[in-house]
Design goal:
Blueprint lengths: L1 E2 L5 E2 L18 H10 L11 H17 L6 E4 L6 H11 L4 E5 L6 H9 L6 E5 L6 H13 L1 E6 L6 E6 L4 E6 L7 H4 L4 E4 L5 H15 L2 E2 L1 H8 L6 H18 L3 E2 L1 H10 L9 H13 L7 H8 L3 H14 L3 E4 L2 E4 L1 H6 L6 H6 L1 H4 L2
Parallel strand pairs: 3-8, 3-9, 4-5, 5-8, 10-11
Antiparallel strand pairs: 1-2, 6-7, 12-13
Helix pairs in contact: 4-5, 7-8, 7-9, 8-10, 9-10, 11-12, 12-13
Length: about 350
C-alpha cells in the first residue's frame, strides 16, 4: 500500500528505487561476495532468530528421521535478516542440493515448468521475492507444491492439450519481504512459516565478533557494540559497517577497532549513533526546520530534500517510522517528539499543540 500527497493510502504504484547507501538492507555485488564467506553453514552457527531456528530444527530433524523431504518453508521479513542463509542451511541439513531463483525472474508458467522439471529428488528450490512471481506461474506452483505434478500446455486454442508431468519430491523455500501480498492459496501450501525479526544489539554484537574473526579483524567489545548500535537491527548492515570501519582502522589505527575508532569511522561515513544516514537526517531536518514538524505532504517533503517522492517513501521513511521518529497520518507526515530530541531541536509551541491529537499527548 502506498500513500498520496496528503498522507492517505493509495493503490497507485510507485517506481523502483535505486539505493546505494551504506545502511541499505538490500544486498549489492560486494555484499553477495562477502556473505558467501561469512554465511553460517548450520543452525547451531546461525546467530539470532531463536524461535525460527528452534522450530525449523524440529521440522528438519523430523523429516530426516522419516527419510522424507522437508515440508515447504516460507520465510518472511525485511531484507538482510538471513532468509537466504537459512535456505542454504536447510539444504545443508537435509544433505540436498539447492537451486536459487527469484520471483521477478519467473514471468511465465513455462519459466517455472523448466525449473521444476529439472529438479532432482529432495532438492531445495529457493524462490526469493516469491510475492513478485507472475500469476500464471503462481497457479502452476500450487499443483507442484501439493501434488508434485504440473500440467504443461501444448498448442493453442481448441487444439491445446495438457500433458501431466510428474515431479520428484522437492522442498520449496520461499522468501518474501511482503507476506501480505501472497495469496492465501499459496501461503496455505507451506508446511512451515517463519517470520524473521530485527536483531537486538546483543545479537548483532555476536554477528560482528564472528564476522571479525572470519575477516581477521581485531575488534574489542566496545567497538562491536558501537557498530551494532548503528546497524538498524540488520546483520547485513552490521557486516557492511564492519568492513568500512575495518578500512578506516587499517589506515588510521593500525587495524584495531575500539569504540573511539568505530565512532570516528562511522562519522566519516555519515552514519549517526542511531543508524540514521544523510538522507534520513535530511528528511527529518526538512520536516522539523521547514515545516515545524508537519503535517506535510510526501511530494512537498521530497522536493524540500531534493529527492524523488519514491526515494523518500521507500528508502528513508520505513526506518524513520520504525524508530518512532516520523508518523504517517491522514493529514500528512508528522515528526514525533523523539525526532525533535534526536536532532537536538525544541518543538514550537503551536506545533506541539497541533500534534497533541496525533500522538495522544
Amino acid at each position: 500500500m502506498n500513500w498520496d500527497e496528503t498522507g492517505s493510502e493509495t493503490d497507485e504504484p510507485t517506481g523502483p528505487v535505486l539505493d546505494d547507501r551504506l545502511v541499505d538492507a538490500d544486498a549489492d555485488g560486494e555484499d553477495t561476495a562477502v556473505e558467501a564467506a561469512l554465511r553460517p553453514k548450520d543452525l547451531d552457527e546461525f546467530v539470532g532468530q531463536e524461535k525460527v531456528r528452534e522450530q525449523l530444527d524440529l521440522v528438519l530433524k523430523a523429516a530426516r528421521a522419516r527419510g522424507a523431504t522437508a515440508d515447504h518453508v516460507l520465510l518472511s521479513g525485511a531484507p538482510g535478516l538471513g532468509k537466504t542463509t537459512l535456505s542454504m542451511i536447510i539444504a545443508a541439513e537435509m544433505n540436498a542440493p539447492i537451486r536459487i531463483t527469484s520471483g521477478p525472474a519467473i514471468q511465465h508458467a513455462g519459466d517455472l515448468a523448466a525449473i521444476l522439471s529439472s529438479l532432482q529428488e529432495g532438492e531445495v528450490l529457493f524462490l526469493d521475492e516469491i510475492h513478485r512471481m507472475s500469476r500464471p506461474a503462481e497457479e502452476m506452483l500450487y499443483m507442484a507444491m501439493e501434488d508434485f505434478r504440473v500440467d504443461v500446455i501444448v498448442g493453442k486454442g481448441p487444439g491445446a492439450t495438457a500433458i501431466p508431468l510428474e515431479l520428484p519430491p522437492f522442498t520449496l523455500v520461499g522468501a518474501t519481504t511482503r507476506a501480505g501480498l501472497l495469496p492465501p492459496p499459496l501461503r496455505d501450501r507451506f508446511g512451515f512459516t517463519g517470520h524473521m525479526e530485527f536483531y537486538a544489539p546483543a545479537e548483532l554484537e555476536r554477528v560482528i565478533h564472528r564476522s571479525a574473526r572470519l575477516l581477521d579483524v581485531g575488534i574489542d567489545a566496545d567497538g562491536a557494540a558501537e557498530i551494532a548500535g548503528r546497524s538498524r537491527g540488520t546483520p547485513r548492515i552490521a557486516n557492511r559497517l564492519l568492513r568500512r570501519v575495518r578500512d578506516y582502522a587499517q589506515v588510521k589505527a593500525e587495524g584495531m577497532i575500539d569504540r573511539e575508532i568505530a565512532a570516528a569511522a562511522l562519522k566519516v561515513y555519515e552514519v549517526d549513533a542511531r543508524g540514521l544516514d544523510r538522507l534520513d537526517r535530511a528528511v527529518l531536518g526538512a520536516l522539523l526546520k521547514l515545516f515545524g514538524g508537519g503535517p506535510v505532504g510526501l511530494s512537498t517533503l521530497a522536493v524540500a530534500v531534493g529527492e524523488e517522492r519514491e526515494t523518500v517513501e521507500e528508502v528513508a521513511e520505513p526506518f524513520l517510522v520504525r524508530e518512532g521518529l516520523l508518523a504517517r497520518t491522514p493529514r500528512g507526515r508528522v515528526a514525533t517528539p523523539a525526532a525533535w530530541a534526536h536532532l537536538g531541536l525544541v518543538p514550537p509551541t503551536h506545533g506541539a499543540k497541533g500534534q497533541q491529537g496525533l500522538f495522544g499527548a
